[in-house]
């Protein structure tokens, strides 16, 4: 999900965890804005491809703890976000 500083949802879609799909996502997000902070809620295994692609492109990344994700999900209840 891509949200702006005002909390407006700009992009939301499922993405497969493979290089082609992730590169498409990165490109789509950077069309919206080049001032991006990428946040992931997994710090091992499944996040390795995304992390590598982002770091290789000089993108800023942050890790969100499970608690932070849970608290943020409360804001998006109507959007079906449950984790």
Explain the overall architecture.
By secondary structure, this protein is of the alpha+beta class. The chain is 40% helix and 16% strand. The model has no long low-confidence stretch (mean pLDDT 86).
Keywords:
40% helix, globular, Transp_IS110-like_N, 3 helices, Transposase IS110-like N-terminal domain-containing protein
Order of secondary-structure elements: EEHEHEH
* Major beta sheet summary: 2 strands, antiparallel
Gyration radius from CA atoms, angstroms: 13 Å
Strand content: 15-25%
Shape, per Cα inertia axes: globular
Report low-confidence residues grouped into runs of 5 or more: none
Can you summarize this structure?
The protein has 83 residues and is an alpha+beta fold.
